[in-house]
Amino acid sequence: MSKLSYRQVHLDFHTPVLPFKLGKNFNKETFQKTLKDAHVNSVTLTGRCHHGHIYYQTKLPARHPQMEGDFLMEQVDACHEIGINAPIYLTVGWDAFSADKHPDWLERKPDGSMYGFQDYGQLSPGWKTLCFNTPYLNYLKTQIIDTMEHFGSKLDGLFFDIVWQDECCCNYCIEKMVSRNLDPENTDERQLFAKMTEKYLKDEIYKTVHTLNPECPIFFNEGNILPSIQSNLEEYSHLEIESLPSGEWGYQHFPTVVRYAKNLGKEYVGMTGKFHKVWADFGSYKNSAALEYETFLALAHGAKCSIGDQMYPDGTLQPATYNLIGSVYKEVEKLEQYNENTRALTEIAIVHPGVIMDSDTKVDFSLAGAVNMLKEAHCQFDIVDLQMDWNKYSIVVLPDKIIMNDEIKLKIASYLENTNGKILATYQSGLDEKKQFLPAWEVTYFGENVYNPTYGQYCSFLEKQLPKGEIVLHGQGLLVKSAQSHVLGAEYCPMYQRNYQHYYSHFQAPVSEASGYVVSSQSERVIYFSHPLFEMYKVHGVQQYKQMILAALKEMLGHMFIETNVPTTGEIILNHKCDKQELVLNILHYIPQRKAIELDTIEDVIPLKDIYVKLNIDKIENKLGYQIGDIKQVNDVRNNYKLKFKQQERSLEFQVPKVNGYQIITINYERTV
Ligand SMILES: [Zn+2]
């Protein structure tokens, strides 16, 4: 049952002390008309911002000093009057008002300096991060109760922002760590304590809200959704994937995170922004093709949409912004029904590296490489953690660094025992703490490779996909051996490892002779590559690394769900309508371009013509658990046109004449009992 609105605006309002009355030009009718005309049906409004200011009538001293009346209540009432949902945003980790009044409430690094956002020193303008082991937590809870009591039954939900704890060395944290027998001088123990604090913080906020209103929707935003969310997952009513592609998230983030988030059993929202850059880039308007792509991709993945904006201090919304949002949301309103109440039809699971270790980057490079390879080949796949069911996938991919612990070993043993599924593993995946590979791998570990880069020479099915001759492997690999019958590729060393004594031309020395080690091997259930091919693809973009992985997947799967001539720049997402006999095929074609030194955007929609699609019905039936009978209709939704199709024994083929950015094809079938 869907509860979240499809066309949301996340309306920031981080407003410092002003030389005029806050919201002096707010006009209820204009505000309502602007939102209505832009097809918006939910607005997240600001209750307390990063300046620490509160925007409703409160006795708390942080009430915005230039506010007269009850500004937030006016906005909430204006929204409710026209049937628009109005959840409230409350800052958590950044609050300049509290930071200035109580510097002892700030997080501290081991050297006593602060944590914060961008430029945040004593004489700098950025946000400083507060610590939740200080009395700030009590203030936070008091302020949440204050908001809930003030809005009472008008409260549509709470969005908590900046919900994380860094490894902190403030006096409070040191005292608490010592009392729990944790060592503040040990980085690992500081990180552990930070994770414990984060869990405690969410528990405390949840209890505070739940005591007053058990039905109040809650989301905790940390700018990412990682497997660590599992420890508090039951406290989230839904998920919001903050992912502004022109900001630090890039175009890599959303397509990755949504494939994990959609398996967490909650409704989810894809949140982008209307700004050209990131939040609060006032006077900028995202290219409409980019905004289209970002919202349509959310729809295709079964998500609701949210577009970020910021209200001006005088209480106005900008017409150009809402013309832009409206132009996209008008289309979203027409299209949102097609992927509503669907589930993704997927045959491959990628195990999230976050089950083993945190990443230094917003998206782990090995995960990013895996997503890119499979997405470019139009594979249908999910990203899973250790709590999720692996048995429903034909292949489990363990990218680069899934080092075995007892929990993962059990998970893999159960998968191999209970399914006919196969495993594709690279580099350290499958290796345990004793430096032994799991028996199913049938490879033996001989240490780290001394050559980087080195070369591989491939045989069997890999040979057919790759250029004749050696392929350079740009990455640190492992030395492994396997039975001759299992070898898919042999290592050929370079003439020497490049160093001050021996160097050759500009880069690595050319290939020399076989080392006796293997770079790829195949056992009954596992195909293994000794190099981190996924991260190497993300870092170097060598097409052959992708070809190796795709050839291995094909070898293990036979044919996949979808065969098509859609180029690598296109995306295909196949869903199944839960309450109908209908498949929903989403095809997107938008190409992000590096137009600026630090950001990608999309300016043009480049149409695709004469798209061929073949669905392998037998594979899809396996996933659905029943047989598909006659295909009744194949509909081109955006052109309102029935497509001709050919149903063979176990496949369905059709041509889509044109994909202009985003196309939805619905396929209605009879179910054979
Ligand atoms: Zn602290």
Automatic annotation (TrEMBL):
<dbReference type="InterPro" id="IPR017853">
    <property type="entry name" value="GH"/>
</dbReference>
<dbReference type="Pfam" id="PF08532">
    <property type="entry name" value="Glyco_hydro_42M"/>
</dbReference>
<feature type="domain" description="Beta-galactosidase trimerisation">
    <location>
        <begin position="374"/>
        <end position="436"/>
    </location>
</feature>
<dbReference type="InterPro" id="IPR029062">
    <property type="entry name" value="Class_I_gatase-like"/>
</dbReference>
<dbReference type="InterPro" id="IPR028212">
    <property type="entry name" value="GHL6"/>
</dbReference>
<protein>
    <recommendedName>
        <fullName>Beta-galactosidase trimerisation domain-containing protein</fullName>
    </recommendedName>
</protein>
<dbReference type="Pfam" id="PF14871">
    <property type="entry name" value="GHL6"/>
</dbReference>
<dbReference type="InterPro" id="IPR013738">
    <property type="entry name" value="Beta_galactosidase_Trimer"/>
</dbReference>
